[in-house]
Amino acid sequence: MIIKKYHSLNEPVMSRVLELENVCNDYDRLKGSVFLDTSLNFNQAIPGIFLLYDCQTLISMLSMFIPSHLEVEISAMTRPEYRQNGYFTALLEQAVEELRSHNIPEILFVCEKPSDVGKDVLLNHLQASYEHTEYYMSIPRGGQYNLGKQRLSLTKATLQDLEILIQLSSEIFEDNYDDAKSLIQNCLNSQTREQYLVTVDDKPMGIASVNHLAVEEASIFGLGILSEYRGNGYGQELLKLILKNLWNRGKQQVTLEVDSKNDRAFRLYQGMGFRIELAYDFYRKQVAEFC
Predict the structure, then answer these.
(1) What angle do CA 93, 48, 207 make, to 5 degrees?
(2) Which major enzyme category is it (predicted)?
(3) Which of 141, 201, 245, 277 has the highest CB neighbour number within 10 Å of its CB?
């Protein structure tokens, strides 16, 4: 048994991980994908992917999405015929060791909702506590949106906008300064992501980000407006502006994720035509609870 740690994956290793994902999804009748992009992790010195090999066979993998210094989202999978042999536990021990050394106190385990095996491990073996569900939603290329009288201005941000973006993110999402700075800088420096600044009457009031997953597909994330502007239709107008921009650039499908407890956002996305594709349950456990 060999465990290898990665900060990012090259193409050959990525192919092996995706092959493992396909095998596990087929066996468990799941549809989701493990998050393998470590570029938004707040500390790039922390390895984000752990792979366990038996000789040359990739047996198990664990990935960590670390957007802040407060918590990490962990996803994992093990080849079906090798399960119940302690391989996931071995990977998790390595991950917890990294988290301890960087003083990250909490873990959110991510489990696709239909996965009975995953739920059993998290609830009975790890005794993690269910926290919430997130919906992965998508919308295909559709009709033209009537913006009416456009009030908002959507501008692609640059590093010159960094401080105002950090301020907005801190107020909208209650991020601390360093975490907001890391996430936004990583987005601005990314080759596939775009950061947007939203203004009304030349006053900054919102932010949004887009990840170009493929030539015809993009995802929206980090979308929000200041609390004092909510309830005036600005959220819908902002979403329409982003979708119009993406359709004009040839995208055929746009995705996003939303917390099931965020009823306002969920209703907005449904009203715009987004439909639920997948649901993920999140389970919390303190790093200090691991022996």
Answers:
(1) 130
(2) transferase
(3) 245
Name every residue whose Cβ is closer than 8 Å to that of residue 44 and which is 6 or more positions away in sequence.
7, 38
Task: At 218, list the tokens.
Answer: 């993009």
Does residue 269 sit in helix, strand or coil?
helix
Q: What is the pLDDT of residue 143?
A: 63
> Which CATH superfamily groups domain 2-133+280-289?
Gcn5-related N-acetyltransferase (GNAT) (3.40.630.30)
Instruction: Report the distance separating Cα 48 and Cα 42, nearest Å.
Output: 11
Q: Taking a C-beta distance cutoff of 8 angstroms, is the pair 153, 206 a contact?
A: no
**What pTM value is reported for the model?**
0.92
Mean local confidence (pLDDT), 258-276: 94
Domain ranges across the chain: 2-133+280-289, 142-251
Report yes or no: 209 and 221 within 8 Å, Cβ to Cβ.
yes
106 CB-near residues (< 8 Å, 6+ apart): 70, 71, 72, 284, 285, 286, 287
One of 3.40.630.30, 1.10.3210.10, 3.30.1360.120, 3.40.50.300 is the CATH number of 142-251, namely 3.40.630.30
